[in-house]
Amino acid sequence: MKDKIKLALCQISSKRENKQENLRKIEELTLKAKQQGADMAIFPELSLTGYVVLDQVYELAETIPGPSTEKVEALAKKTGMHIIFGMPELSEKTQATVFNTAVFIGPQGLIGKYRKMYLPTHSVFEEKRYFRPGYEPAAFQTDLGNIGLSICYDVFFPEVFRLTRLKGAQLIICISASPAVRRNYFEILTSARALENTAFLAYVNLAGVEDGLQFWGGSRLVSPTGDVVAKAKYDEEDFIICEVDYGDLRTAETFIPTLRDLRPELFEKLKEYSELL
């Protein structure tokens, strides 16, 4: 495993319902990331299709593996890159069950996937209307370290990130489609999730406008001490290269020993009291 890795935070504006164009952009920026020495290219939530696709999601969703993931696998193999992106995943067992999924592909093929656990269904969000929630945290041991996956609204729920960290994740990727009205929340919460778990957190958000909904961008890499060490522009497409130094984990864990000081018995209390809500 490498001691240091370079990430390309690919903050794009997806073309709604146009997988071909979005795959072209994924290829273009992955090649750019490779040229600039990156090990991994990360794209936002539902970047394959765009976020605001409504009932078209049933036509756009694909199984994993499927046509789009196979194209990205070929790209990863050609470039030697690791690639993470979001897409609507069609269940292999039914014809109309769809998940909001983060896909993780490496040079050897599909590494794994994560199905978004928390689906916002309030204000401008309608995700429970279209998607089924996932049930499992995801962390994968790779040549680039132990990498965890999460998606957008999950960041409001510390238990998702705690479970991912306890599965061994040293770097947690959070892909997102957060509108501008939520910017302040995400800036606070991404730092909090990194700090409380003493893990790196790479947050990659959509940018631009879809059907009147403005996505604020602001993609970032947060250190295990909660510091923002790299940040993309607000509101527009951007591309930044940043470095993760796993050597920083030991220092963070020593001086912020949250994992050492965990009280597992409190998790049972959390379950007990949440059932009473």
Structural commentary:
The longest helix has 17 residues, at 19-35. This protein has helices at 19-35, 57-60, 67-79, 127-130, 158-166, 183-197, 247-255, 265-274; strands spanning 4-11, 40-42, 82-90, 98-106, 109-115, 138-142, 145-151, 171-176, 200-205, 207-210, 213-216, 220-222, 228-231, 238-245. With 277 residues, it is an alpha/beta fold. β4 (98-106) and β5 (109-115) form a beta hairpin. The model has no long low-confidence stretch (mean pLDDT 97).
Task: State the main characteristics.
14 strands; single chain; 6-stranded mixed beta sheet; 277 residues; alpha/beta; 8 helices; Nitrilase/N-carbamoyl-D-aminoacid amidohydrolase
Q: What would you say about this model in short?
A:
By secondary structure, the chain is α/β, with parallel strands linked by helices. The protein is 29% helix and 30% strand.
